[in-house]
Write a structure and sequence with these properties.
Blueprint (H helix, E strand, L loop, with lengths): L4 H8 L9 E4 L6 H16 L11 E5 L4 H4 L7 E3 L16 H7 L1 H20 L6 H14 L5 E6 L7 H13 L17 E4 L2 H4 L4 H6 L4 E8 L7 H19 L9 E8 L4 H22 L7 H14 L4
Parallel strand pairs: 1-2, 2-3, 4-5, 4-6, 6-7
Helix pairs in contact: 4-5, 5-11, 6-11, 7-11
Length: 319
């Protein structure tokens, strides 16, 4: 969460502190916003009249620091460990996913994990010509290196995947936005593309004009589910008609133009915990495979760490 008091107030204003479980998640507790939010939410409990000795009934800690819970005066059973070598963007499958497991239930979360595991197996053993994440990585590499594509746009025609654009943005740009190779040498050429997008049907009325006739080269993934997550048959028919028609429109640009789109369609029969897990794992594997193709480490984020360091220095100068 950001260190924005507006968000803090919006969330806490509808909560009863006496029936709220707080999950504090931080790999190292070195991130300034996490530390600030932690102290603010613990103070919220105190102001409600909950003594520190009872925090054990309201707070759990997810961290790579073995003594993280004890530092907050919490018993060891309130601690959920994570590995220190996995970035947050790859961590939903572990204890960082605790809020997801609580919200959806253990059975649903296990199905989500099973879908991801199935994709892990596919990525590991499927031959290259049939390996979905490997093919996606090779297409993306070709788009960047040979076709000089500069942006990657994700367009889900499904309300349930609206925020997947934000997830993909962090996954790819934090993993691949590097100018130094894994061996320390400078990178030649592009690595990460600019990742953006939006709900497909809504975006038709905002930025599709840029995609159709703008002066750029774009890689685009259009996503839809064959079966809807609702009972409104006519709405789904209209949505699917738009998804398929707009895909064709995005492909058929003026052949005389030097600008173009590289368009892929990704469709699934139905959005279930298993297919969502597989879908997310597929994009994770695509990203790490791209790291290999570019010769960079997809699992570090030195630029992010520099920003944290400078923020700590700036904090000392603000009263």
């Amino acid at each position: 969460a950001s260190a924005d008091g507006v968000i803090f107030d919006r969330i806490t204003s509808v909560l009863d502190p006496f029936s709220t479980l707080i999950v504090i998640s931080s790999k190292s507790f070195k991130t300034q916003e996490t530390r600030a939010n932690t102290m603010e939410i613990l103070d919220w409990l105190k102001k409600a009249g909950i003594p520190e000795k009872d925090f054990k009934h309201h707070v759990v800690v997810v961290s790579a620091k073995p003594d993280a819970a004890e530092q907050f005066g919490l018993p060891k059973e309130n601690f959920f460990p994570i590995w220190d070598w996995v970035g947050g963007r790859f961590s939903v499958w572990g204890a960082i996913g605790l809020p997801v497991a609580i919200a959806l239930g253990a059975d649903t979360f296990k199905r989500f994990l099973a879908g991801a595991h199935a994709m892990d197996q596919h990525a590991s053993i499927a031959p290259l010509q049939n390996n979905l994440p490997a093919l996606m990585a090779m297409f993306a590499y070709w788009n960047s290196e040979k076709l000089d594509v500069s942006s990657y746009c994700f367009l889900p025609y499904d309300e349930r995947l609206r925020v997947m654009v934000d997830w993909l943005q962090q996954l790819e740009m934090e993993s691949l936005g590097k100018s130094t190779a894994a061996d320390g040498t400078p990178v030649i050429g592009k690595t990460s593309l600019a990742v953006w997008g939006g709900h497909g049907n809504e975006s038709q009325h905002s930025f599709y004009q840029f995609l159709r006739e703008g002066t750029a080269k774009n890689a685009i993934d259009v996503f839809w589910c064959e079966k809807p997550g609702h009972a409104h048959k006519e709405l789904h028919r209209v949505l699917m008609a738009n998804a398929k028609a707009q895909t064709e429109a995005l492909v058929t640009r003026d052949p005389k133009s030097k600008y173009f789109n590289v368009v892929s369609t990704v469709s699934i029969e139905e959005l279930t915990p298993e297919t969502l897990g597989a879908l997310m794992a597929m994009y994770e594997h695509k990203t790490t495979m791209l790291g290999t193709l570019f010769g960079i480490n997809a699992f570090d984020q030195p630029g992010v760490e520099l920003g944290k360091k400078l923020a700590n220095e700036a904090y000392k100068k603000i009263s």
